[in-house]
């Protein structure tokens, strides 16, 4: 398995329309055919010292392998998401991992 976790830090002061645009666009990525599992969410209400809740949204994308991830990265839906939403975030942090 190949796991792709993306934490988005949205800009402060975005309008409700901008936030909806981000959410709708991020959720549209779930249609990419190489995904095994896809989820977009906000920080959970859990609150312990080891939990980082500083991000705005977290995307979890799981693929069977690196090749599936590579298809996702070049997919027109993914490229459109970046182009249409990149002005909404100030920072993106990505964690990729492979099953051991």
UniProtKB/TrEMBL annotation:
Full protein name: Dabb family protein
One Pfam family recorded for the sequence: Dabb
Signal peptide: none
Residues in Stress-response A/B barrel domain copies: 2-97
Protein origin, superkingdom: Bacteria
């Amino acid at each position: 398995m190949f796991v792709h976790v993306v934490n988005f830090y949205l800009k402060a002061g975005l309008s409700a329309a901008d936030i909806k645009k981000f959410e709708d666009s991020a959720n549209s990525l779930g249609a990419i055919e190489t995904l095994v599992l896809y989820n977009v969410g906000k920080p959970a209400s859990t609150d312990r010292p080891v939990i980082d809740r500083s991000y705005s949204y977290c995307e979890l994308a799981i693929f069977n392998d690196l090749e599936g991830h590579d298809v996702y990265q070049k997919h027109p839906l993914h490229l459109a998401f970046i182009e249409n939403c990149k002005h909404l975030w100030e920072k993106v942090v990505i964690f990729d991992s492979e099953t051991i």
